Amino acid sequence: MTFKELGLFPQILKALESCGYKSPTPIQEKAIPQVLAGKDVMGLAQTGTGKTAAFVLPLLQRLAQGPRGRVRVLVIAPTRELAEQTHEAFGTLGRHIDFRSAAVYGGVGIGPQIQKLRKGVEVVVACPGRLLDHIARGTVDLRGVETLVLDEADRMFDMGFLPDIRKIMKSLPARRQTLLFSATMPADIMKLAQEILKDPVTVQIDHEAPAETISHALYPVEHHFKTTLLMELLSRTETESVLVFTRTKHRAKKLAEQLEMAGHKATSLQGNLSQNKRQAALEGFRRGSFKILVATDIAARGIDISRISHVINYDMPDSSDAYTHRIGRTGRACRTGEAYTLVTPEDAAMVAAIDRLLGRKTERCALQGLEYTVPEIGRVSTASGRAPSRGYAAGRVRRSGNRQPQLRRRAQPRG
Ligand code: AMP
What we know:
Elements: H1 10-19, H2 26-36, E1 41-44, H3 51-63, E2 73-76, H4 80-93, E3 101-104, H5 111-119, E4 123-126, H6 128-137, E5 147-150, H7 153-158, H8 162-169, E6 177-182, H9 187-196, E7 201-204, E8 214-220, H10 226-236, E9 241-245, H11 249-261, E10 266-269, H12 275-287, E11 292-295, H13 297-300, E12 308-313, H14 320-327, E13 337-343, H15 348-358, E14 363-367, E15 381-383
């Protein structure tokens, strides 16, 4: 299947070509015809599947025709990063179409947003809180909305946004197209979907399992030895950009500092940062001036950086969904990636959940040559910093030649 066969306009095909998108991803193949036909759609897709373009492309087709100067498409997203990225996707994929888009989120001045909305836009990509603020001030008119998109609906629910979304609905016309995208479908999202979608078509791909292009490895380790193991993994592995996840903001900051002290180009992304610092960290990571980004789950939501070769779970995620979400940052659309997870004896239940998610016993690895106690969490195979090669295309992610290092290190204090 090609984008042309999906019936997209030449000016959209031209933009796709300059973006280097050669063929539609499975979710795009399934969702685009339905959205073009004006159907309500429930899309079950995680980040990394190409879900953004799955709704942006057909909506651009709609925007290429019809009136200008009123908000026709409203996208609601849980985080500023996701809102900004979706707004950018409209700009990039719609570069040959005459329309205007505004990103509307909190943490930055409202004045410039008001001015932009006043001048007239056809697309608004918004986070719920700031959008409600604009509605209350009368600075946005949503009466002409033709399509509403709720992106990452499960995340919005996690973040407590459902009441805000129900309030926003009241400002929208009843006759409209609604698209709801979610990586998971908990009962509350199902209920919301039943309330707001009319006769929806469900499109989904491969349930919640992470993309096939990613290889997974677990590294059993005692908690106090995690930082040493991480440093060693980084020094033995050839990487592009690396995203490291920690459970707490404090640990993200501290770990990034320790990595920096050890000579790595590292920074952290955590909830305490100002919007400017956040954007600087993300931009630096995107451009490659930082090779390692340490983040918490909340801070990393919506990160869309395609060069991430490795996701390292310094701390175990809370659920297999969260694992899928974190890992979805690597191996994006046809790229390959590796996921390393440091596991302590307390993580045994989550290890079982990950094995179930992946449908196999995930390889347990230990770093050869590094003197440390490997705790018993299922079978452990000794590897020279190697993750299993299964499932990733040759040539993309290579390791350093340091396969049999003769290192003897003593455990370091708790990281
Ligand atoms: P998303 O799931 O929307 O976060 O997209 C994941 C990544 O895949 C983004 O970096 C997109 O730019 C990229 N992408 C989306 N669609 C395609 C495609 N058809 N071909 C190649 N890359 C794509």
